[in-house]
Design a protein that fits this description.
By secondary structure, this protein is mainly α. It contains four helices and no strands. Adenosine-5'-triphosphate binds next to α4.
Length: 122
């Protein structure tokens, strides 16, 4: 096998390892995954449209991806400087702020998708 393909395969292996590390050890990722699983079941039960599934899947992927990156930033910050420092606080805060952008995006998509169903049932 050529070196390029071998390298890509190795990267993929590490990426899958990281994926399982996140969903097994990171509480925020575990909690969000459980909530998203509930929403997926809700989507199946309500029979949401193909476009709704695309929107919802994108939004969920966005939240989990940014949350994963936020975890990496937090761990890097703790590794570089364990003690309290205003700059570490700032770095962690803006990293968490990025998650908020993704969460708001998800929330807007969630409301647009499910509000019509909720309104017809109440
Ligand atoms: N080393 C530090 N120096 C200054 N502020 C910090 C530091 N560590 C954390 N903070 C502040 O605390 C907030 C929460 O940080 P972090 O998410 O690491 O803490 P945690 O809630 O204990 O972690 P976890 O999410 O793993 O439970 C940060 O956004 C930041 O405002």
């Amino acid at each position: 096998m050529n070196i390029f393909l071998k390298g890509r395969l190795k990267s993929f292996k590490y990426a899958i390892k990281g994926f399982f590390l996140l969903i097994k050890t990171e509480h925020s990722i575990i909690a969000q995954s459980i909530i998203f699983l509930g929403i997926i079941i809700l989507g199946i039960l309500l029979g949401i449209s193909k476009q709704d599934w695309i929107n919802q899947t994108f939004a969920m992927g966005l939240v989990l991806s940014i949350e994963g990156m936020n975890t990496a930033v937090e761990k890097t910050a703790d590794f570089i400087h364990k003690e309290h420092h205003p700059k570490i606080g700032f770095i962690k805060d803006i990293s968490a702020g990025a998650v908020t952008f993704a969460m708001l995006t998800f929330l807007i998509i969630f409301i647009i998708t499910y509000l019509p169903y909720i309104l017809t049932y109440v």
